[in-house]
């Protein structure tokens, strides 16, 4: 089995796609006006309109309601990312901080309130978890 994608349901696909393109530097692939994907070598972030929810079932998803999932983006330098995001992000949850598990993390919220962790491994143990990913980003 392979995790194919993580999907965000939103009321404004265009705004959320624009945010993630600016925040990550990854161009979205628009499969439909109601659906887009940001593809990386390790996974895909899908963005879908609330208009697609009835196709999935009655009231199975709700925009702006997430408080339990965090999106993690591996970056070369968290401090540089923090500076680059100043004109993109409205809500900074936690400035770059060294975490006890060996990562330096920056926590922000996207326009729908979803939590995003931009991180860089700083300990040798943490770097060993991502040996080929650093310096190979889109």
UniProtKB/TrEMBL annotation:
Cross-referenced InterPro entries: Glyas_Bleomycin-R_OHBP_Dase (IPR029068), Glyas_Fos-R_dOase_dom (IPR004360), VOC_core (IPR037523)
Residue span, VOC domain: 2-121
Leader peptide range in chain numbering: none
Highest taxon of source: Bacteria
UniProt-recorded name of the protein: VOC family protein
């Amino acid at each position: 089995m392979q995790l194919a994608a993580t999907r965000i349901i939103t009321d404004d696909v265009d705004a959320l796609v624009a945010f993630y393109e600016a925040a990550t530097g990854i161009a979205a692939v628009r499969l439909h006006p109601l659906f887009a994907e940001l593809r990386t070598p390790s996974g895909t972030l899908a963005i879908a309109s609330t208009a697609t929810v009835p196709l999935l079932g009655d009231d199975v998803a709700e925009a702006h309601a997430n408080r339990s999932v965090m999106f993690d983006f591996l970056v070369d330098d968290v401090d540089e990312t923090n500076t680059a995001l100043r004109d993109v992000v409205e809500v900074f949850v936690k400035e770059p901080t060294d975490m006890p598990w060996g990562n330096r993390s920056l926590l922000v919220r996207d326009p729908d309130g979803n939590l995003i962790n931009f991180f860089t491994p700083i300990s040798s143990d943490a770097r060993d978890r991502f040996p080929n990913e650093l310096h190979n980003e889109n």
